[in-house]
Amino acid sequence: MRYLVYRAAFEALALPGVAPLVRQFSRAKGVIFTLHRVLPEPPAAFAPNAILQVSPNFLEAAIVKSRAAGFDIVDLDEAARRVESAERTKPFVVFTFDDAYRDNLQYALPVLKKHNAPFTLFVPTALVDGAGQVWWQALEDIIAANKVVVVPGPGGPRYVDAATTRQKQSLYDELYAAHRAMPEPERVEAIRALAGRAGIDLDAHCRALIMDWSELKTFAEEPLCTIGAHTVHHYELSKLPGEDMRLEIDQSRSIIKAQFGEAPAHFSYPIGSPVAAGPREFATVKELGFRTAVTTRPGGLYREHANHLEALPRISLNGSFQKESFLDVFLTGAFFSVLSGGKVNVG
Asked: Where residue 77 falls among pLDDT bands split at 50, 70, 90?
């Protein structure tokens, strides 16, 4: 139902002239786009993580549309400068990619280079080592591959039917919510037990999805690319004790510096929602000296964000809304700021 409401809102806001008119009167200085995967194949019927996936053609359309609408495509350093400027600067877009998926190298980078579009790649270092868990995708893949899923539990294994798309989606929703609610050490063990029952090697699964350091070197040497930190293990930081939270942030920066010779100045909070990252995490990132940090709270960027560069909003280029006419909506930060309940939301 929520999807249908959002879809109807997008259709209305995408009517000719609506979004440009809002931008004409908005004080938003620019927007930051969140992306994850870029793949040419359409998703399967059961693909709950398809919201994280756009096609190369849609990425290209977003770049072309941004410039045609009068936006500069800039890196995060320039975005921060324009946010801090008291002057009315030219509107801008920042393209950011989370998690270092291998398909970013195969399908996103050629498009970005073709259009000379700056971008940021946020890297979770343990996943690049092949020692982390892309657990949300593993959960999808386990359910997709089985008609009956064996779910371990304290009372013994539970056998759940997953033959139909509806059954698969229901089980995914249940298990995703349960895993999100667990403390991180418990969640790590729970998904490992589930994968073990299904015969999936989580380390191999991670290595198949995420670039290794040699592949990432291509990005580190690319002038268009800014490498950012995204913790070590992609843990939900709000769940961690304070010192563990700080180490996840600081060590990811140190590891990237050791690999490429330069410490990242920009950070992305894993998951990035108000539940996943809040004032404690924002204060830590600011204390550690990052130039900017990005959330997944929706919204445009305003002059007020100059005082909150450690908690910048982003707009997700959602895989379920890959319609070129929607790009005018995505470029209009004011719409998404309203969804957040205000222009600046860091509480």
From this structure: very high
Phi, psi angle pair for 155, to nearest 5°: -95, 10
Q: What is the pLDDT of residues 223-258, one digit of tens each?
A: 999 999 999 999 999 999 999 999 999 999 999 999
**CA–CA dist 261, 220 (Å, integer):** 10
Q: What is the pLDDT of residue 219?
A: 98
Q: Is 266 helix (H, G, I), strand (E, B) or coil?
A: strand
CB contact at 8 A, 185 and 77: no
DSSP-assigned letters across all residues of 189-247: HHHHHHHHHHT--HHHHHHHHB--HHHHHHHHT-TTEEEEE--SS---GGGS-HHHHHH
Average pLDDT for 80-85: 97
Angle between helices 165-181 and 184-198 (to 10 degrees): 150
Whole-angstrom distance, CA of residue 317 vs CA of residue 313: 13
Q: How many CB atoms lie within 10 A of CB 333?
A: 28
Cα gap 34→255, rounded to integer Å: 23
Sign of the Cα pseudo-torsion (96, 99, 100, 103, in order): negative
The burial class, CB within 10 Å (0-12 / 13-18 / 19+), for 247 is: middle
CA 131 vs CA 12, 28, 58, 179, 286: distances in Å: 45, 40, 31, 19, 28
| Average pLDDT estimate for 83-103 | 96
Could you tell me the domains of the chain? 2-129+212-339 (3.20.20.370), 135-204 (no CATH)
Which pLDDT tens digit goes with each residue over 98-121? 999 999 999 999 999 999 999 999
Closest by alpha carbon to 263, among 271, 274, 252, 277?
252
Residues 6+ apart with CB under 8 A from 46: 140, 143, 144, 165, 168, 169, 172
